[in-house]
Amino acid sequence: MSLPPTELLRRFGLSAPELVTETTRAKVWRVRQKTDTQAALKYYPAGHMGNETSGLTYLERVEGAGAVRVFARSTDAVVMEWLQGPSLGELARRQAPEVADRGLTDVAAQLFAAEVCADGLLSVAAIMVPLRDACFTAPEAREAQDIAWACLDQMQRGAAETVALHGDLHHDNIIHTAQGLRTFDAKGLAGPRAYELANAFRHPRGCRAFAADAQVIRHRAITWGRVAGCGAQEQLRWAIAKLLLSMLWSGQEAPEERALLRQMLRVVEKGLPD
């Protein structure tokens, strides 16, 4: 069984490590604090957190308002609140996607209400710039690229307010704990409010038929746009831009993603409330 370095446990006053997950970048253990409460210890063997640093900064600033609490961190490790319970994604896959959507909406509202500082967080504009030169073959992807360019231009002109964002808010990144809903795995971005729930239009995982339903897309655009303080049309345009960005990152124009993109474009074409 893999154990954290002894020095790491001593540094944070932790004991009884149980390995939970391991990736090429980090390892996570469930541990005990001196108060005998559970916590999560995430260790980065490379000696740094890489692009996860911005997300942890965001979570520290939110201070538990709908998000996991960060107890302590150093350059190569972080100790966070242990989140026990099912994810909203699991709830959705148990035939309750509408209930999961309402939970996601509530968490987004809490995060927006926190109004934390966006200074030093990774810019949404910076991660979207590659869409300008990307080459897509599917006609719906090329149509979506025009929308993504318009979103990027709006941001770069300063036409949209820049706020602190979780940056990857969706159903499988929210746990239903005994203390309430808590999100984790933040990217920590600075960008327009409409970006916050843009990625959620592709989720929950395993519920593609639900996510691709035109009435669901329309309802989400109206509801999530209201929470973000923007029009439904703007919210859905950002969702289209984010879906295209995800396709670019994957290096694929997968049939499922293309089908969802076509449906989203149809809803935009029919029009939504401003």
Outline the structure in words.
Helix content is 43%, strand content 16%. It has 274 residues and is α+β, with helices and mostly antiparallel strands. The strands form three sheets. Strands 1-2-3-5-4 form a five-stranded antiparallel β-sheet, with helices on both faces. A three-stranded mixed β-sheet has the order 6-10-7. It has a two-stranded antiparallel ribbon with strand order 8-9. The radius of gyration is 19 Å and the shape is globular. The model has no long low-confidence stretch (mean pLDDT 95).
Question: Brief overview, please?
Answer:
With 274 residues, the chain is α+β, with helices and mostly antiparallel strands. The protein is 43% helix and 16% strand.
What does the secondary structure layout of this molecule look like, with pairings?
Layout: H1 6-12, E1 15-22, E2 27-32, E3 38-43, H2 53-62, E4 70-73, E5 77-81, H3 88-93, H4 97-114, E6 122-123, H5 124-128, H6 139-156, E7 163-165, E8 174-177, E9 180-183, E10 189-191, H7 208-211, H8 214-228, H9 232-250, H10 255-270
Parallel strand pairs: 6-10
Antiparallel strand pairs: 1-2, 2-3, 3-5, 4-5, 7-10, 8-9
Main features:
2 domains, phosphotransferase activity, alcohol group as acceptor, Phosphorylase Kinase, domain 1, 274 residues, alpha+beta, 16% strand, Streptomycin resistance protein, Aminoglycoside 3'-phosphotransferase, Chain: A, domain 2, 3-stranded mixed beta sheet, Kinase-like_dom_sf, 5-stranded antiparallel beta sheet
